[in-house]
Amino acid sequence: MENLLRPLIVIGGSILLGLVIGWATDRLLRKADERHPETPLWGLLRRGRIPYQLVLCAATLRGSYDEAQLLQDHHVGVGRTLTLVLIGSAAWLVIRIAAAVVETSYSRYANGRARRDPARVRRVRTQVTLITRVVTAIVGVMAIASMLLTFPAMRAAGASLLASAGILGIVAGVAAQSTLSNMFAGLQIAFGDMVRIGDTVVVDGEWGTVDEITLTYLTVRTWDERRVTMPVSYFTSKPFENWSRGTPQMTGVVYWHLDHTAPVAAMRDRLRDILRECPAWDGRAYGLDVTDTTPNTMEVRALLTAKDADDVWTARVTVRERMIAWLIKEHPYALPRVNTADATLAPGPNGHRRSPDGTAPRRAVETPRPDRG
Hints:
373 residues; alpha+beta; five-stranded antiparallel sheet; three-stranded antiparallel sheet; disordered C terminus
């Protein structure tokens, strides 16, 4: 009877103790989150309650397994399994705690600078994201290495690998050259402030917003909701447009090709009226000028300003559409026309019309009529 009750008491007590401690800790974190709503730390720490309970249960079971004297024939296997679970859950818990601390620090920084310096906030967000990924990768590698070292065979293999680390390092560096270059490019992007999450960029003719940055790739969300994924090394080796660099304010351009009789002064006044009714215009500046002419048309350019790339696009299409509608209604003669009239030939030196090729026309030779007697 004692041999049956002892394992149940030890194992059941260990599991119950772990669950009770985990539940009590979660209650304390919940109360702390309710008392301090200004900081998200306590709420973020609650995300680690599952790995925390796993750590408690695995630790108590690993410590009480010898006292339970259960499955003695499989003592080594059960003990190693509990050790592996303990290592894995501890790594999971460390990752959750590190993510909660980093996210809390970023939230406090962003709340204080979101209005004053949004570009700086996006830069810090990019750095925080990559730092979290690096910490996750380091903890994961250390956890896997610790798990492997629990096996005696792996210890010998590890010693032999360390002995030949120089050669293996060279081979791995050559084999993973592109991967390593992308990783270093990701770190360069994060701390070099080249591109940040939320920036508006133009890459290979695609206009969109940076949606995600990792150590190896970068995702751009285009205006039509597509996702373009590119290696981060592209942004360190090729030129690209970053419309959010510095201030997000932009100047837009609208072109029209009109007839030479178009009322430029009236169009300038109409542009002012259109922009006053357009919410996307920020009111900084506008202008309208004739920038080029051709034998049949002239090129009219309008300039306008907006607070960011989205608003400048909206303002441009609004001005283009309303100006064309106004010209059609009020000044239809200003629209480009195709001349289908017959060409008027220039007079020659003796007042005769020249032929289209520029030569004088031939005079008709009068033929004498036959004498009919």
